[in-house]
Amino acid sequence: MRVSSIVSAYYAEPYIEGRILNLQQQTLRPQIVIVAQEKSVEAKIAEGMLNGEDVLIDTPDIPSIYGAWNLGIEAARGEYITNANSDDRLASYAIEFLASALDRNPNHAVAYADVDIVEDLTGGFDFAWRTGYFQWAEGGFDELMKFCFLGPQPMWRKSLHDKYGPFDASFQSAGDYEFWLRLAAHNETFYHLREALGIYLRRPDQAEARFNSDGTAWKEIELVRQRYS
């Protein structure tokens, strides 16, 4: 098994079926690991769609997103891990391209690509109307201290968690940023694919928007930077 995709499927009823289909239709089909609240609509949808080596993890409550990712990583069998946000979609070849980048560059810890922004998922990656894009920066620890440039759809080596531990589940929005800085502080490096391999749905009710509006995101970013300064 080369890749495991972790899906935190909370408050995701409108998106979870399309997310699973998008992963199932990848040219390199990943193991799909869904983490969802037991007896939820999301869990029922996933149960009816998953097969083979896919995994559904039921939780009695709703953990932080990084707590959910940690549960998924424990169940993952892939050499590489990617998070698959419920309301994002990937090009059909995205998983293959990211995994191939890590295959070709064994000294890099994480591969990431640029991302197009949409306001509606209609048409999927191929046909959804683009309203913007994230063309990410590149660099190491110094650059990462200024800005989290790995984006929402990276792929990383599962073995990194054996070396550096899990995501810090106490964070609500900056747990991935903290982990990438943890890697960079140990001189791990990142590989940038300079093309858009996914679409990011911008919507007012998403967790990121909530954490930005109440100040949680900026407080956590500063806490992370203090931890590594």
Fold and architecture overview:
By secondary structure, this protein is of the alpha/beta class. The chain has a single domain, classed as Spore Coat Polysaccharide Biosynthesis Protein SpsA, Chain A (Alpha-Beta Complex). The chain is 38% helix and 25% strand. The protein has ten helices and nine strands. Strands 1, 2, 3, 4, 5, 6, 7, 8 and 9 form a nine-stranded mixed sheet that branches. Helix 1 (16-24) runs parallel beside helix 2 (41-49) and helix 8 (175-185) packs parallel to helix 10. The longest helix has 13 residues, at 216-228. It is globular and about 45 Å long. The mean pLDDT is 96.
Keywords:
alpha/beta, 10 helices, 229 residues, 25% strand, Spore Coat Polysaccharide Biosynthesis Protein SpsA, Chain A, 38% helix, nine-stranded mixed β-sheet
Give, in order, the helices and strands. Answer: EHEHEHEEHEHEHEHHEHH
Give the uncertain stretches in residue-range form: none
Cα(first) to Cα(last) distance is 38 Å
| Share of residues in strands | 15-25%
At the fourth level of CATH, the homologous superfamily is Spore Coat Polysaccharide Biosynthesis Protein SpsA, Chain A
Give the domain tally.
Answer: 1
Question: How many helices in DSSP terms?
Answer: 10
CATH T-level topology = Spore Coat Polysaccharide Biosynthesis Protein SpsA, Chain A
- CATH architecture identity: Alpha-Beta Complex
Biggest sheet details: 9 strands, mixed
Overall geometry comes to globular
Helical content stands at 25-40%
Can you tell me the CATH class?
Answer: Alpha Beta
Secondary structure class reads alpha/beta
